[in-house]
Amino acid sequence: MIKGLAITPPILGRISIGRVVEKNGKRLPEKDDQFTITSQVQNKDGWILHPFDEGLRKAAIGGKLRSIPIRVLFNEPDLNLRAEYSLFDRQTGRPLCTGNGDVCRRYTASGIESLPCPSPDSCQLAKSGCKPYARLNVLIGDENEIGSFIFRTTGYNSIRSLAARLSYYKAVSGNLLACLPLELRLRGKSTTMSHRSAIYYADITVREGMTLEEAITQAKENDERRKSVGYDQVALDDAAAIGFANGAFEDSTEEVAEVVEEFFPGAVAGADPQSTTSTSKPSLMDKLDKKVSGNAEGKS
User: Fold this and answer.
1) Per the record, where are the segments of Polar residues compositional bias (predicted)?
2) How far apart are alpha carbons 157 and 175 in whole angstroms?
């Protein structure tokens, strides 16, 4: 296994709430009130829809895709949903720091270092644009047992709801989370901060038309069926944990420009993630390197 490269679940497509649109010569994220399922291929008009999108949309009320029948790959919630505080360089789009509120992995002049993470509210560096960022991998349909669709979000409501649901469903099912018939559902709410307008977030429930007890019964049946053919869920979870831990940052250099454009607007979309320089003004990474170098010279 190549060290430093995070090994993540194979991706067949994307699930999003909204899209990136061009306004006044700038590409900006635009929220929506429904899900969109796309392939991994883009054309001049954006991401190409996945066949699942058309099929599920036809069955949806009013043509609005607001629920998707899913399963998850792993019994461990943190493997299905990886959430962390993330900071990207606003000039280059390069990932700089990820943390969990306790420890973080950060690019410095000396390489990647593990440092204390006080959370964005108490971190001076976080003022440059650090915020929660999560990735959820789910299975749609029953044709591919490993290939998944990825849902990315920086929304507090989505992250909090998804994390709670996955943790609770694991507990009440007796650690059979990967066998439960679930549904990714879009919910709306209004708050004072949203000026009473609706904001939408992702949640997970058991499949529509099923009670929790029925879903658990089906999960037990799925678990027995899998064990009878030698399916090793524990080994799969262990392999996933090792793969995620193999890299300091999960998103690949090919993906990071798209992630920054959609979820961290203001950074240079399409910039080379490996570059630490900018043709305009010094990047955050340049400033950090200069500060570290200055401190080192002062101590010598």
Assistant:
1) 273-282
2) 25
